[in-house]
Give the backbone structure.
Amino acid sequence: PTGAAITEAPIPTESGEYEAGLTVIGDFDTVETFCRYFNWLKPPSKIERNSNFHLFKTGIKPMWEDPANANGGKWVLTMKNAPQLLDRCWSWLAMAMVGEEFDDYGEDICGAVVSLRSKVDRIQLWIKTKDDVERVNALGKKLVKILDVSEADGIGLEFQVCARHKLDE
């Protein structure tokens, strides 16, 4: 795989704290190195509420302000009170990204986020562009197939466009 990094971040209490709160757990450019980091991480269901794990390509920050994310969007998978499903989906998504199972969409993918919240937990797959609707939808179908989930699992799935605030306007 191309280089990537795993980071962790709590939700900031004030604007501007998000990037400062990111903690890099590890950078990697091989599956073996990825596994060294990933295997000792606690599962997402065990991290503190209001925290995130990020898995993003090298050079892309897990923020909408990053130029690679600025014109894109994200597939958001939501689930409630399903810690085992959350852990499994995050693990399968990370392995699929590193194992290049998204082969036809590799250039489109920026990274992924898992978020533990008080009401609904989320897994997000961030992509570079939102403009090719057919491609975006095909990627969403691929995501559902890789994670082997459906509405019967009590999950929700929606596509959201970039939510960055334009500071330069």
